[in-house]
Recover the amino acids of this structure.
């Protein structure tokens, strides 16, 4: 043990003290032993280091930093090198501020498009997620600090996230929700990982032996530190035994005493504590920056990197009649509040204070385009305003082309709360309908963290989705609109026609006690493609100002090579995608799955030979019968395309595989076999889980305990109902006065378990007082 002598020189109390923070963002130091404190702080798409009062939900401003596109945006670039460079730049800014651990990237799988935190996550696909997140981790850690991938694992919803039990079958858990993390651990080699708040199959993630000991440390060989999400500790001793080393933020010694008492009463072996201390010391001594010269930051240079990242991530969804790029001879009207007041990032713990920020209206006005004017068009937070609509219609009538900026406001998607629907606000849609009556050349520019419904798709000439493109979004968009940059983004998630089409729609979110993943492996394109359900825009889709031709596919078992040619008139980048489809499978599985991709730049007329290498794991499924990854014998099609619905080349290979049976057969699972998961029966889901699922609802007759939430108090006596309604009143009040961040943070309080109150207040409200309050509520 590297730090054995140092650990032996510590008192039990000192060892226990290292297992939790000194304050909101720092670990504890032990001065007499020259053990320094290190700082952990938020990312994941920029540095959020708070200079004053600390909080975890973005209420208090942080120091200026470069705000890059969010992970959901960057994922649309499908560009490994770009994302590595973004990580490298963010890590450099973190190192300049003596930050040792940057909390990101987020890589939870987008089970459902309503998840309020999807803007922080890469994709609905675990392969794409793992590949891109690995590059960001490598880039961050190139600066001598640690990245901290999160949230491990199955953090699929924000509603009741601190108590919800994510009930998921073993195969879906392995193939979807853990696979991205596996790739990150094995390829990116992060020094820390953050556990999620939620339970996974009945046990909190932070104290889940199966997730941490068996899989993370055991199978994957992770050798770093596991840190809780902020306030994500339930049972401190259980977490320590399972493999968590660091609880954040500080609890003013409350849980340190629990560790000491557990050791002295023989409930916790001191060797386990020593092992945890050793891991933490390794992190501290390999990432502490106190004696290192701070790298110099050129924020102007970093701003240009942010522009470049945004350019490569913007997705052109429609371009009827080649209305884009814009010509210099067409009069342009700019309409929509988002043109002046950009929506360029999410909310909550990822809220960056941008070092520089412009808006599309100003940048477009300086571009040389003949701009005839700007009109706000609508109130951002909703509500009708006839005057704004009239001004916009009058302006549109004077223009050849309308650039209409629509999007999701800051209250629509945020940490701690899920989206209510996939719709834009009705006043935005009303405005669009009014504009198309006077001008047939409307270009819609959408800002938001994910998929939206687009009932207007056939009524406008062009659609660009910028997602949340960071501080360089205005310059990047202008470059795309003018044709100075040829758009190359491809969707990393499926856009359904309507929310009801989504596989998990009948089951999402879990309202009270559990979130049942009844849809199993059939999420995103795995569902839509298998059942051949029409979509608005498919996974992997995105248009270009040029055209590409694919030819000459050759496959040598684990290697596919093909040629791409730019057959258009302008330079461009193409994202070539490789999918694998199994023929005549004896188990249920998605029709095809993404297993490779490359982004290729080509001049007009240029051709390049592209090679994508596969491995045995790419052909495997997780066999729950034997709890191992298995290759089913038989024929596989290696398919190359520009999206999952545009397969252009295909070659078949045959694999010997493993002669191992699996219980996931058509007779036992008819609806999973067909992919029609909206029709899954209770008996079929029980067979999939292998046990009777727990009740999805709270029992209002049960007494409330420390792991119950303030929201549950509404079922109790007058005191409980009063507490609930007072908190809910403030949420409604902040919503009414257009303070969405405050409203969302009040909602966070509603979902908070009682056990966290003493820890979040540092003991100012004691555990004894909380237990007394619960006793009164339960009367």
């Amino acid at each position: 043990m590297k730090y054995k002598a140092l650990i032996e020189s510590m008192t039990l109390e000192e060892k226990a003290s290292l297992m939790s923070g000194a304050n909101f963002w720092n670990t504890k130091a032990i001065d007499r032993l020259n053990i320094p404190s290190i700082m952990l702080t938020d990312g994941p798409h920029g540095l959020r280091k708070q200079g004053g009062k600390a909080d975890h939900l973005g209420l208090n401003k942080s120091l200026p930093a470069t705000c890059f596109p969010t992970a959901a945006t960057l994922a649309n670039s499908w560009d490994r090198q770009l994302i590595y460079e973004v990580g490298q730049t963010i890590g450099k800014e973190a190192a300049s501020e003596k930050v040792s651990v940057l909390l990101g990237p987020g890589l939870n799988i987008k089970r459902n498009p309503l998840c309020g935190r999807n803007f922080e996550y890469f994709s609905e696909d675990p392969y794409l997620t793992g590949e891109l997140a690995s590059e960001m981790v490598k880039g961050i850690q190139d600066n001598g600090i640690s990245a901290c991938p999160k949230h491990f694992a199955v953090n699929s919803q924000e509603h009741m996230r601190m108590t919800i039990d994510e009930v998921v079958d073993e195969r879906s858990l392995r193939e979807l929700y853990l696979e991205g993390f596996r790739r990150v651990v094995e390829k990116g080699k992060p020094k820390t990982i953050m556990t999620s708040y939620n339970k996974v199959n009945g046990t909190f993630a932070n104290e889940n032996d199966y997730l941490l000991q068996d899989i993370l440390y055991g199978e994957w060989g992770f050798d770093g530190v596991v840190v809780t999400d902020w306030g994500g500790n339930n049972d401190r001793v259980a977490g320590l035994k399972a493999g968590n080393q660091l609880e954040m933020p500080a609890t003013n010694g409350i849980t340190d005493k629990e560790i000491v008492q557990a050791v002295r009463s023989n409930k916790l072996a001191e060797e386990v504590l020593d092992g945890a201390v050793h891991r933490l010391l390794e992190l501290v001594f390999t990432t502490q920056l106190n004696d290192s010269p701070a790298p110099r930051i050129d924020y102007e240079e970093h701003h240009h990197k942010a522009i470049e990242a945004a350019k490569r991530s913007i997705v052109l969804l429609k371009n009827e009649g080649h209305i884009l790029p814009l010509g210099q001879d067409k009069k342009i009207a700019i309409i929509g509040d988002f043109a002046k007041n950009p929506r360029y990032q999410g909310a909550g713990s990822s809220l960056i204070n941008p070092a520089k920020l412009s808006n599309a209206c100003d940048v477009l006005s300086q571009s040389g385009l003949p701009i005839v004017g700007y009109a706000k068009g609508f109130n951002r937070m909703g509500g009708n305003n006839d005057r704004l609509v009239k001004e916009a219609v009058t302006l549109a009538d004077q223009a050849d082309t309308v650039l209409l900026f629509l999007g999701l406001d800051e209250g629509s998607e945020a940490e701690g709360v899920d989206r209510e629907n996939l719709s834009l606000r009705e006043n935005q849609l009303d405005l669009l309908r009014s504009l198309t009556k006077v001008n047939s050349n409307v270009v819609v520019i959408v800002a938001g963290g994910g998929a939206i419904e687009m009932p207007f798709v056939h009524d406008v000439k062009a659609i660009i989705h910028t997602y949340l493109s960071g501080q360089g979004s205005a310059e990047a968009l202008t470059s795309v609109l003018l044709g100075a940059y040829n758009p190359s983004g491809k969707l990393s998630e499926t856009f359904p026609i309507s929310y009801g089409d989504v596989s998990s729609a009948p089951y999402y979110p879990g309202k009270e006690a559990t979130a049942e993943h009844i849809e199993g492996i059939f999420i995103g394109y795995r569902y839509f493609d298998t059942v051949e359900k029409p979509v608005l825009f498919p996974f992997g889709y995105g248009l270009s100002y040029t055209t590409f031709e694919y030819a000459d596919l050759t496959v040598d078992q684990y290697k596919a090579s093909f040629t791409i040619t730019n057959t258009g008139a302008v330079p461009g980048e193409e994202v070539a995608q490789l999918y694998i489809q199994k023929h005549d499978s004896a188990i249920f599985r998605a029709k095809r799955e993404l297993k490779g991709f490359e982004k290729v730049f080509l001049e007009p007329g240029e051709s390049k030979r592209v090679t994508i290498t596969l491995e045995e794991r790419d052909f495997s499924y997780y066999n729950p019968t034997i709890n191992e990854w298995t290759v089913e014998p038989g024929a596989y099609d290696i398919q190359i395309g520009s999206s999952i619905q545009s397969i252009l080349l295909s070659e078949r290979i045959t694999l010997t595989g493993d002669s191992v049976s699996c219980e996931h057969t058509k007779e036992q699972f008819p609806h999973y076999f067909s992919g029609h998961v909206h029709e899954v029966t209770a008996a079929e889901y029980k067979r999939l889980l292998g046990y009777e699922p727990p009740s999805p609802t709270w029992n209002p007759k049960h007494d409330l305990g420390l792991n119950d939430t303030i929201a549950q108090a509404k079922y109790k006596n007058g005191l409980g109902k009063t507490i609930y309604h007072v908190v809910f009143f403030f949420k409604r009040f902040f919503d009414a006065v257009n303070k969405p961040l405050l409203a969302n943070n009040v909602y966070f309080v509603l979902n908070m378990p009682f056990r966290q109150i003493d820890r979040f207040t540092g003991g100012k409200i004691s555990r004894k007082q909380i237990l007394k309050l619960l006793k009164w509520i339960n009367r």
The chain has a mean pLDDT of 95. The first helix runs from residue 4 to 8. Residues 587 and 767 are 51 Å apart (CA to CA).
